[in-house]
């Protein structure tokens, strides 16, 4: 089994803690435990026996997660160590070596690299900024014929776009026609900037699996807590594979996650995050207005902005030079499968983003030619 280097994750691991301004994250600036639990609840944690707990997820946690997906129940939920484990064991459950996955790009490249390492036939479905990063039904229909899984992210990473109803309908129609599963990463749901909360695709098609986690919109990446929402038989199959991966997630993370996913707490935390994202999206919009040779589509959701730049400079080189010269770290577009773009995080504190953009301006003075 051969794994390609996961460029974005490897570079973040190497450099994100070595720079003054890290703009590679795509989630909301993390909350503290005191933002989630009442003082009495925090005291109760001190008395907690550190046993294994529920390896498939505490009942209250699974119920609270299910409440965010109309029509789902606790038996439709499997708790995982982040969305990365959720995606991995979902793929291992749904796909056999040699079977084909259609994977929409630009995207977080886990499905692409992991799928090929596991012996799957991964076919990329290229999305275009010219139509707002939406699905082209004709291209999708051609790619989906004979596919076992169609994998998308909604809201999207790195573009921050949300699928239109036309795109959603095209996905479901193509999946029905080919009998494929839809694997939908909804990790940025809840982090909407201007519009209403993104409607989950759960419930629109029987052969559908949703993955998500607390790392992005919920601003709790340190909990490393994710989940699968799927038909009961798929949850059971994924749980059997989790027995070979991590067995289960930590008891402390599950208790905190159950509190986060209570409907009232969930709404409060997401609302605070949206306020920060909106403020910072406006800040990037002001910066873009002063750089007319750059282009973007204002993100609809998520803690990132995807910017197309006019320099004759590969995006990985752009990222390296900016990091070395200005101690600002941004994500190269090539790490998502597309060139001449960078992704900058807008979920950071506003003053951090403002300083990063100031240093980017200074960088461009020396590299604009």
How does this model look, in words?
The protein has 2 domains: 7-31 and 266-367, Aspartate Aminotransferase, domain 1, CATH 3.90.1150.10; 39-262, Type I PLP-dependent aspartate aminotransferase-like (Major domain) (Aspartate Aminotransferase, domain 2, 3-Layer(aba) Sandwich), CATH 3.40.640.10. Helices cover 40% and strands 15% of the residues. It has 12 helices and 13 strands. The protein has a 7-stranded mixed β-sheet, with helices on both faces. Strands 9-10-13-12 form a 4-stranded antiparallel β-sheet. The longest helix is centred in the last third of the chain and has 27 residues, at 263-289. The model has no long low-confidence stretch (mean pLDDT 96).
The helix content, as a percent range, equals 25-40%
Query: Largest beta sheet, briefly?
Result: 7 strands, mixed
CATH superfamily membership of the largest domain: Type I PLP-dependent aspartate aminotransferase-like (Major domain)
Strand order of the largest sheet: 2-8-7-6-5-3-4
Q: Distance N terminus to C terminus?
A: 44 Å
Low-confidence stretches: none
What is this structure, in a nutshell?
Helices cover 40% and strands 15% of the residues. With 369 residues, it is an alpha/beta fold.
List the helices and strands and how they pair.
Layout: H1 7-15, E1 21-22, H2 39-46, H3 59-66, E2 77-80, H4 82-94, E3 100-105, H5 110-117, E4 121-126, H6 137-144, E5 149-153, H7 165-178, E6 181-185, E7 208-213, E8 226-229, H8 232-242, H9 251-260, H10 263-289, E9 295-296, E10 304-308, H11 315-326, E11 328-329, E12 331-332, E13 341-345, H12 350-367
Parallel strand pairs: 1-11, 3-4, 3-5, 5-6, 6-7
Antiparallel strand pairs: 2-8, 7-8, 9-10, 10-13, 12-13
